[in-house]
Amino acid sequence: MLIQSKDGVIELLPAIPEVWSEGKVSGLCARGGYEVSFEWKGGYVRDCSIKARQNSTVTLLYNGQRKTIKFKANQTQNIKTW
Fold first, then answer.
1. Tens of pLDDT along 32-82?
2. Which of 53, 64, 68, 81 has the most beta carbons within 10 angstroms of its beta carbon?
3. How far apart (Å, rounded) are the C-alpha atoms in residues 35 and 19?
4. Which has the closest alpha carbon to 50: 16, 13, 6, 80?
């Protein structure tokens, strides 16, 4: 599983197979009106960007970290993951 979203939380790579040790996805839709793109290597998220359709706040879970991000409508944020 590459992404999971529920109740204002987006989790990246919650259950990724070991054979997918690296990769890249773009344009994944998450609940709440978010578009998520990210890259991973060694099972860890390396680069991530999220675009919100509306003013909102989301909690992002990745690499054992938790980050709360505030968005304005149609804003894209690049997330530093390491």
1. 999 999 999 999 999 999 999 999 999 999 999 999 999 999 999 999 887
2. 81
3. 25
4. 80
Give residue 61's identity as a one-letter amino acid code: L
In whole angstroms, give the CA distance from residue 69 to residue 50: 10
d(CA 54, CA 18): 35
Residues 6+ apart with CB under 8 A from 32: 5, 8, 52, 56, 58
Q: Is the pTM for the entire model greater than 0.70?
A: yes
Q: Within 13 Å and on the Cβ side, how many CA atoms surround 8? A: 11
